Model the fold of this input.
Amino acid sequence: MVRGTGIKAKNEANQDSVSRRLQIIRAAAALFIRKGLLKTTVREIARESGITVGTLYHYIKTKNDIMSLIMDEELALVNDFIREGEKALSQSGPVEALRLAIERYFRMTAEIQDLNLFWYQETKNLSPDQRKRLLEYEYQFAETFNRILMAGCKSGHFRDHDTLLTAHDIIVLGDMWAFRRWFVGKHCTLDEFLKHQTNLILSGICNST
Amino acid sequence: MVRGTGIKAKNEANQDSVSRRLQIIRAAAALFIRKGLLKTTVREIARESGITVGTLYHYIKTKNDIMSLIMDEELALVNDFIREGEKALSQSGPVEALRLAIERYFRMTAEIQDLNLFWYQETKNLSPDQRKRLLEYEYQFAETFNRILMAGCKSGHFRDHDTLLTAHDIIVLGDMWAFRRWFVGKHCTLDEFLKHQTNLILSGICNST
Amino acid sequence: MVRGTGIKAKNEANQDSVSRRLQIIRAAAALFIRKGLLKTTVREIARESGITVGTLYHYIKTKNDIMSLIMDEELALVNDFIREGEKALSQSGPVEALRLAIERYFRMTAEIQDLNLFWYQETKNLSPDQRKRLLEYEYQFAETFNRILMAGCKSGHFRDHDTLLTAHDIIVLGDMWAFRRWFVGKHCTLDEFLKHQTNLILSGICNST
Amino acid sequence: MVRGTGIKAKNEANQDSVSRRLQIIRAAAALFIRKGLLKTTVREIARESGITVGTLYHYIKTKNDIMSLIMDEELALVNDFIREGEKALSQSGPVEALRLAIERYFRMTAEIQDLNLFWYQETKNLSPDQRKRLLEYEYQFAETFNRILMAGCKSGHFRDHDTLLTAHDIIVLGDMWAFRRWFVGKHCTLDEFLKHQTNLILSGICNST
DNA sequence: AATGAATGAGAGTTCATTCAT
DNA sequence: TATGAATGAACTCTCATTCAT
Done:
């Protein structure tokens, strides 16, 4: 029903403190995504987790705390993306590197589309700390693209322009898959979407030769 | 403090039923935008409107009703945009028409950026009816751009491609000004933003020659 | 729709203070009967009366005041009944007098059945004064029957018994038409009802022979 | 102060979920009876129950829900009455059976007189379901009496007549103890009342021999 | 570790009554 | 006389969090 939270279940049998948290996080994420943060009650999260309210509060401090935990889960994905971004750039030319980076970003973002949408929508309800963390992610994503773009400008593959803004453009054109799902989801497949957007971006910034 | 709801005050002195509603709508919009729909209480709206709760309920039926009223206010803008879109196309070539449409959309969307962001974020808390209305707006915007793009493809100015998806791309690249304000707002002016995005889009779809 | 409030409209054209009150009383009575005293709002009464709230308050002091006015209207009926009761007794024997009193009471009570039911149900929401007045009516009704019954006992037509209790029995057996309407109304006509109850009562108290 | 709700307290020490509900029901019943359903607030019920509002809502779903629970409590009494009615008829003649049925009904109804009165008065404020249930009770009572009366007519002990209407008469003549308490309560004892009414009814329907 | 009853502040909404026009 | 906007206390119900068991 709920697609793409991107947070995977670990071995259910291992009911230690860590996996209990994970169990709660997954239930909460699903509910938050479906109903929104404020409309989801702690009772519902407990019920969905298969535990009681009292027990839930053994593993989390407050309702808002769960948000931080969900973010932690996502962190791994982001870090992977950024680390691999560096590698790609060093191994191929800027055009190919950008192509690859876009593909990886789009596929990742599509995988966690629900969560992605969720952050877009609940920004207002996050604590300042959480909001700050979220922005840092975004800045890092943008920076990753920016480095590739700047390299391409330097090497003459891309025309000279505001690369950082383009980096954000790329991110937004990918996130679209999540927040315009009501249109894109029906309109085309992820592969078609990826191809279209890649073409648009590359045609938009490449020096014609 | 709150920028660009786009809903303007009429003559304050004229405290008739219509203007009272407007007064409430503006206060509510500002609060909704700042705090979110669910975190804004009816009492706050009343206080911000300079009236009491009881009085507020003379002018609105329910809290959710206010949302519909806010949407009504916006409708005028949207209709203007769409109507003028038709004219532009008939008066100039597709490239120029697109350029103009983009400019008009970007400036309009920037003007009501807060409200725009608000709709992005509160979708979940709208009634089905309201959600439907919102989507209809979006479809109409996209259709306006789509018509220009298709004309351009036909005339050979634009390369053949999925024009409807591009139409949505344009919208998203404009809405960015609202939902990535934390970056774009600091990074450049609206005019620079407009120029960058227009270039990206046109370079992305124009047939080189 | 609403049957038998027994309060009749005077000449509508004569919109003086008295008839305005009557207009309000009639509207209020209909609403009170249909929805109950507490669930009827002053706004509804005004709307049903074809006037505004402000105007309504020119003619009545408080919502509760309307109850008193409704009672006043009913007073006339009650007084008529009691006055005529005296006459009947002096003109015929006790059996016939009782028979006639029962018939008159039943027909009167059936005519104002809704109002009758209303008093039964809203006793708790009346002011002490109103409650007292209502009881006085009841006592007078009972006393009327009681006098006939006592005369019949004295003359040997009725067996010796607690006549006052029987008087109340008679009243209750008549009011049934109102508060058991869900059964009696479907089960038989008022005439059949009257005949059955009269028989029951007379057979119950007459000396055989 | 409040007499005869007929709902008895179980062991107070046993504060489990069931008894908590009972505690609430009893408090609510007392308040509803004294002040009426609409004039009794949830806060009052909570205070009277010795708990807080929040706690109260652990045990009941809505204020109206309490009504259903009160009805459930009464159901037991009603079922007992009806079950025993069958037995009595098979063991003695119709006259004696009726006498017994009347006595049992009168004593039962006197025991729960407040509740009885309450149902009479709050019919309008019940949900359709609740209203339906209440009528079913009444029909069953009437049917119980009706069976005895029909048997008596068949055996020649009672004169031929509309037995179902008489059945309702009997019920009403018993309920009087509740809804005319302001008179009957002062006028005579329950035993005297029972004797008078029994005589009236039996004299009213028996074939003289 | 696990429970779920208890809390109480605060949410949206209603409504009898007043009063300036 | 007539209006209807304005009031604000009071209503029912919700929910994150605590804590004794």
